[in-house]
Design goal:
Rossmann fold; 267 residues; 34% helix; alpha/beta; hydrolase; hydrolase activity; Alpha/beta fold hydrolase; AB_hydrolase_1; 9-stranded mixed sheet
Length: 267
Amino acid sequence: MQTTTDTLAFNSGYAEVNGLNMYYEVYGQGKPIVLIHGGGSTIQSNFAKLIPLLAKNRQVIAMELQAHGRTSDRDADSSFEQDADDVAALLKNLGIDKADFLGFSNGGTTTLQIAIRHPELVDKMILGSALAKRNGVPEWFWDFMKQATLENMPIQLQEAYKQVAPDTGGLQVMHDRDAKRMVDFKDIPDEQLKAIKGPALVIIGDKDVITPEHAIELSRKLVSAELAIIPGGHGAYIGEITTITPDFTDSDMVVPMIEKFLNKKAK
């Protein structure tokens, strides 16, 4: 289905993916870049500000993962490995053999799993506030996740879900799946990280939930990585909905840095 929003045309649809009815959107033309959202999010809540800028020069492919937004749930816990397999299946369905990837937050962790499990799909990857080790966030984070309730979920994310979900009753399911996945999170082994060969750009905010130490460590574990620590909170550098302030402008985003990284020729 073709839709136009704010003069930006895109195609959207659903694909049968590993037992899910997965929603996706495709914008623009050019080399594909795949956007993978974070926990509790939709395409728009993470990437509404970013997509129009990237789509000027690229084909942008974004999807909603298990139980998120317009995508159905399956009778199984969420996992980053399963999300990676779901994205890989969607890209096969769409005829995409290789792409660049930009994953934010949980989506960054999923992007790492795609590079580990489906390396043939990945050219370059941008890892926005991605978690690879449990020590990459403050200790309070894990206690918070164990006690997580829907009432504590950012209201902007709740509203974004309700705007698009066919059944808003799924909000609790999405919340619980995401919380359990974080409680159960296990470190990605160093040998798996070191086996990732493609170029990577690791980005966090200086007031991010991800610690600078973790971002530095991750960038050093990857064979070919650059690191950027940007002023701001978790996702402010891409205009994520919970971080936007009234004085936000497109120039607050790191799009020039992303495009420079993506366009850099291999040595």
